[in-house]
Amino acid sequence: MIKLDRTPKPAELTTELQVALTDEFKITGKSVWNIDFIKKSLLSLSNDKCCYCEANINEESKYLEVEHFHHKGKYKDEVLEWNNLLPSCKKCNGTKNDHDTKLEPIIDPSIIEPKKHLKYWRYRIKGTDDFGKLTVSVLNLNDQDRLVKKRYEIGNAIQIKLEQLNEITDDFINGIQTSTRRKNRIINGTKDLMKEGLPNSIYSATTATIILTDIEFKTLKEKLVLLKFWDEELSQLETDLENTAFELYK
Ligand SMILES: [Zn+2]
From the CA of 167, how far away is ligand 1's center (Å)? Predict the structure, then answer.
């Protein structure tokens, strides 16, 4: 989960339309929020990801679910309140179900910085206070099959990539392979890997955390600095990853 910047309410969602559709929902119970412009605006709010688990919404559930942070069964007046709508995957939406976020608040990532209440340890998200712990539990953020395994797969893939980058960098340092092509492969390979931890990428918080805390990454960075390959873009990427990553739970 990462902090999302709430985009402005879509212009198409006029007060008149909002009132009319809210009334329609109260009478018919129809999913009046399933409108293309609402879905499109929600997708751009989160870069096509679930606001809670960061899965690609299209991949995980075929289609986006319009999530009502304050649930629609109880807070009927808010079913089309823009600030109450979030993009969620089917699993997170279903897991959260009718949890009452007013009586027992959890993190709304469009308002609260998740990192203030969540940390990371061994492919698991850990609440650092009661608010964070309730968030993890209500959203089942450590779902074994769906999320913990996925984080492990991401971690393993990062590890393999970092080992490869360290190997070809060692070859460069030892004079075995010193072509410009090889130099570019080292620099661009490192950049491509780091870009996977940027906020617009799926599972960015996990990816950024794993990269920055991996000993192979620290070693690689030292070598790139030594070779003067560590340029401004790499520095910027590191700063961006630091902003996305969780701190480790200790
Ligand atoms: Zn989700």
Answer: 36
Token pair listed for 76: 């009927």
Helix (H, G, I), strand (E, B) or coil at 50: coil
pLDDT in tens, 12-25: 999 999 999 999 99
Interval between CA 1 and ligand 1 midpoint (Å): 9
Cβ atoms of 142 and 136 closer than 8 Å = yes
CA distance 102 to 42: 22
For residue 36, give both structure tokens.
Answer: 């293309």
Domain end call among 104, 125, 154: 104
Question: What is the CA(189)–ligand 1 centre distance, in A?
Answer: 29
Q: End of a domain among 48, 80, 104?
A: 104
How many structural domains does the chain have?
2
User: What is the domain extent for residue 178?
Assistant: 144-244
139-159: pLDDT as tens digits: 999 999 999 999 999 999 999
- Cα of 238 vs centre of ligand 1, distance in Å, is 26
23 CA → ligand 1 middle, Å: 29
Query: Residue 160 C-alpha to ligand 1 middle, in angstroms?
Result: 27
User: Do 152 and 200 reside in the same domain of the chain?
Assistant: yes
Confidence band for 48, pLDDT divided at 50, 70 and 90? very high
